[in-house]
Each structure stands twice: as structure tokens, then as C-alpha cells.
Amino acid sequence: MRTVRSRFQPDRQLTARMLVTLFLLGLLYVAFIAVLIVLLKSWILVVVIAAGLLGAQYWFSDRIALYAMHGRLASPAEQPHLHGIIDRLCTTADMPKPRVAVSEMDLPNAFATGRNADHTVVCVTTGLLRRLETQELEGVLAHELSHVAHRDVAVITIASFLGVIAGLIVRFALYAQLFGGRGRRDQNTVVLFIAVMAVSAVVYAISFVLIRALSRYRELAADRAAAMLTGRPSALASALTKVSGDIVRIPTRDLRTAQAFNAFFFTPVRGSGAVLSNLLSTHPSLERRLDQLAQISARLGKPG
Questions:
Q1: Where in this chain does the record put each Peptidase M48 domain (predicted)?
Q2: Where are the domains of the chain?
Q3: Is 119 annotated as a binding-site member?
Q4: Which of 20-24, 174-178, 195-199 has the highest mean pLDDT?
Q5: Per-residue pLDDT at 56
Q6: Would you state the pLDDT for residue 143?
């Protein structure tokens, strides 16, 4: 998979992991569609629905994410400080400037989404802008821009599609069973319902684990790339510590709204006291990220 030409350090391990994940999910997707065609006996319906949803997610992922997070595009006149930082980073990285958006949420976070470098948006919340100093914000934005340069934003968007399809099919099957007729003549329907639910659950579970494994590594890769581009890993570490500490103070309602986009965020959204195993988390632990940044600081000969 080709990365966008920029001065962000290429990460061959990230590229290899993205290729392997897409390959495995592709095989899983083909098998899933084949099983659904056999069970539902209507390949046209399955293919049309699958293609339609994939196209919508690929072409409109940026608009969907902005709408869900109450974000809007911001002009340089509206956000001169934010645009100034992104302009400097894009010039340093020698990469196209993405669109810039702001979300009116107190939740301190940022994310990048879009199908390619020419159709990407970087969004930050007003909560993040209020909390971070300029160098800390620069580190966070460099982290998000590295996702664009490495093209893992598009890969995560496509990879998450299979889990979305599986979840939707479970819901459709459930609604059909709940509102369908009952009786002996529906015994075959019950068997079909159970089979579709079982297959969809297995597919969702496998795709869930694969996507999260890739997501954890891509966050470490983005931290490394941002630290090397800015030359200030300590500023990024400071932003990580500050944002992670403040998220637990955000109202639960706002956290629930944002949790669906965890894989895209700078730091994961978790409620107070939530404990997620490494296998299920979209991000590596804060300790691991800070330890990596400390090692980079040592190599650069700067204080951690």
C-alpha cells in the first residue's frame, strides 16, 4: 500500500499490518457474502445492499463523522491559530493541507477522517483548543496528519465496514423475526434467523479483533511520526497526559455520543472507571504511549 509522499517517516510495519488486515477481512467478507447468499437465496439483494453501504461509508465517511460529532468546517478567518499550526505542519511535512473543522464539544479530542489525502478533514473539539498550549496542540495535530500521510484513516474506514454490515444484518434479522408471522409454517424462518444471527456474530467478532489490533498499532505509529516531525516528543506526551486526565471529567452523555468513533480519536473515550482489556481496546495504554515518547526523547537527546 503506497503512502502519501511527505516527510513523515514511512512505517513499513504499519503498511504490512494494513495489507494483512485488509487481506484477512477481504477473505472474511467474501465468505460472509457467500454464506448469506446461500442462506437468503437472493444474491442480488445481498450484493446491492453490501455495495451500497460500502460506497456510502467510503465516499461519505468524513461527512458522517462530522455530523455525528457536531463538527463544522472552519475557515482561517474563524480559526486563525488552528489554521496557522496546520499550515506550518503541512509545509514541514510537504503534504497537502486537509480541510479543517471544529466540533463544539467540551470533550478534549481530535480526529482525522476521509477516503484519501485530497478528501480528508482534521477535526478538533473546542474542549481540546481550550486545554492545550500551542506546542501541545501542534503535537496532537501532527499525530492526526500522520494518519493522513500513512493512509491508515482510509484503511480503518474500509476495514470497519464489515463489522457495520454484520451488525446491520443482525438487526434486520431480529426485526424480521419480531414482526414476522408465527406458526409451524415459520419453523424454517426460525432456523434461518438463527443461522444468520450466528454467522453475523462470528464475522463481527473476528472483524472487531482484527480492526482493534490494527488500530492500536497505528496510534503508536502516529505518535512516533508526530514526535519525529515536530522534534518535541515531550509536548505530545504532555498533551496525552492532559487530555487523558480530563476525559474522565466529561459528562457520561457526551462520552456515549463519541464512543462510536473511538478508533479515530487521538485518545480513547472511556467512562469513569471503565476497564478495557488490551484485546478489545482501540488504543494502546497511556503508559505504553508515554514510554515510547520517552524513548524517542532519549534518542533525540531531549528531556522526556
A1: 76-295
A2: 19-300
A3: no
A4: 20-24
A5: 67
A6: 95
**Catalytic residue of the set 78, 133, 136, 144:** 144
Note the pLDDT tens digit of each residue in 37-72. 776 666 676 667 667 766 766 677 677 778 777 889
70 is annotated as contributing to ligand binding:
no
Q: How confident is the model at residue 8 (pLDDT cuts 50, 70, 90)?
A: confident
Whether 144 sits among the annotated catalytic residues: the reply is: yes
Residue 300, all three cell numbers: 533525540
Lowest mean pLDDT among 100-104, 252-256, 282-286: 252-256
Q: How far is CA 153 from CA 51, 89, 201, 208, 215, in A?
A: 20, 18, 25, 16, 10
Higher pLDDT, 38 or 92: 92
Residue by residue, what is the 3-state secondary structure of the chain? CCCCCCCCCCCHHHHHHHHHHHHHHHHHHHHHHHHHHHHHCCHHHHHHHHHHHHHHHHHHHHHHHHHHCCEEECCCCCCHHHHHHHHHHHHHHCCCCCEEEEECCCCCCEEEEECCHHHEEEEEEHHHHHHCCHHHHHHHHHHHHHHHHHCHHHHHHHHHHHHHHHHHHHHHHHHHHHHCCCCHHHHHHHHHHHHHHHHHHHHHHHHHHHHHHHHHHHHHHHHHHHHHHHCCHHHHHHHHHHHHHHHCCCCHHHHHHHHHHHHHECCCCCCCCCCCCCCCCCCCCHHHHHHHHHHHHHHHCCCC
Distances (CA, A) of 164 to 44, 158, 240, 283: 19, 10, 29, 20
Do the annotations mark residue 78 as ligand-binding?
no
